[in-house]
Each structure stands twice: as C-alpha cells, then as structure tokens.
Amino acid sequence: MPCNPELIVAGSNQSYPSSNQFDYGVDNLQYPRKYVIWSSTMNSYILPIYIVSFRSPHLIGLSGLGRARSRFG
C-alpha cells in the first residue's frame, strides 16, 4: 500500500481525502488499526478475488445504503 496516509479523527464523517496527496485514511499514523480506502483510489489498491452478495429483509427499503462513509467513532 502506498505510504501517504491521512489521519482521520474518531467521529469524523469524512468520506474522501482532504487532498490529492493522501491515498487512504487511518485512525493512528504510528500504529493504525482502522483503514479507510477512498473510493477515488479503490480500484488502484484492492484486488477483488471474491465478491459476496446477499439480501436481508431487514435492510430492504432503508435509505442511505451504499454511500461511502467513515466507520470511525
């Protein structure tokens, strides 16, 4: 993975890099545990070997699904 991480603080709603110089986001620059791969660079760094698809009756009709968002928080 390229070495241009951007620090994303807990609770952030950031879903894209703040600058073109960043390749991905992390929760901690020294010892990252959570990573955010921006959709703008997703195809450059992820090789999909498997695709898993499923439908849940509990999720049908919910709005907001499928949008990029950060899980920090």
Automatic annotation (TrEMBL):
Residues 1-73 form the PARP catalytic domain. PROSITE patterns: PARP_CATALYTIC. Signal peptide: none annotated. One of its GO terms (molecular function) is NAD+ poly-ADP-ribosyltransferase activity. InterPro entries: Poly(ADP-ribose)pol_cat_dom (IPR012317), RCD1/SRO1-5 (IPR044964). This is Poly(ADP-ribose) polymerase catalytic domain.
